[in-house]
Amino acid sequence: MIEPYLYFGRAIAVAMPAGIVIWLFANISISGTSILTIIANFLDPLANLMGLDGYILTGFILGIPANEIVLPIILMCYLNGTSLVNMEDTAQIGQILIQNGWTILTAINVMIFTILHFPCSTTLMTIKKETGSLKWTIISFLISTVCGIVLCMCTNFIYNIFV
Predict the structure, then answer these.
(1) What is the 3-state secondary structure (H, E, C) of the chain?
(2) What is the C-alpha to C-alpha distance for residues 155 and 1, in angstroms, rounded to an integer?
(3) Number of structural domains in the chain
(4) Cβ–Cβ under 8 Å, residues 152 and 50
């Protein structure tokens, strides 16, 4: 069994550098476009196949240190912010998502991908420590992520047949 303080130590070791990377991506621009937006635009074609958008997929990828920062990253992107957003007003969050093109399909696919995407970095580090194998860590990452991507694509395809 892993001691709680070791788990939190691993979380801090990953979260701090990740926070710096997220801040840099949001604040450094190339030709007037933030690195965060460049990444989102690159991921947009895959995200669209999944019934998502590039900012959502970017939020999931940058949220690997802790899954609970995915929505704040998405909101930061939508608001063209330079730091993570912490909102308590669910109606305001809903309005931001709707203004940025969210539909029932987007919400369903975000829920599907939230359930099935890769484990957070601390969990991956724990898998590596407990199994002693990078192979099982990578397999844990890939199986869940591929299942999430495929199921979102299937949901998107089926939804678009009927709508």
Answers:
(1) CCCHHHHHHHHHHHHHHHHHHHHHHHHCEECCEEHHHHHHHHHHHHHHHCCCCHHHHHHHHHCCCCHHHHHHHHHHHHCCCCCCCCCCCHHHHHHHHHHCCCCHHHHHHHHHHHHHCCCCHHHHHHHHHHHCCHHHHHHHHHHHHHHHHHHHHHHHHHHHHHC
(2) 38
(3) 1
(4) yes
- Residue numbers of the domain that contains 46: 4-162
Q: How many residues does the chain have?
A: 163
pTM, rounded to two decimals: 0.86
CA-based nearest residue to 147, from 119, 123, 109, 117: 117
Q: What is the pLDDT along the chain (163 residues), one digit of tens a residue?
A: 556 666 566 667 766 787 788 888 988 999 999 999 999 999 999 999 999 999 999 999 998 888 888 998 899 889 887 777 777 888 889 999 999 999 999 999 999 999 999 988 888 888 999 999 999 999 999 999 999 999 999 999 999 999 8
At residue 155, what are phi and psi to the nearest 5 degrees? -60, -45
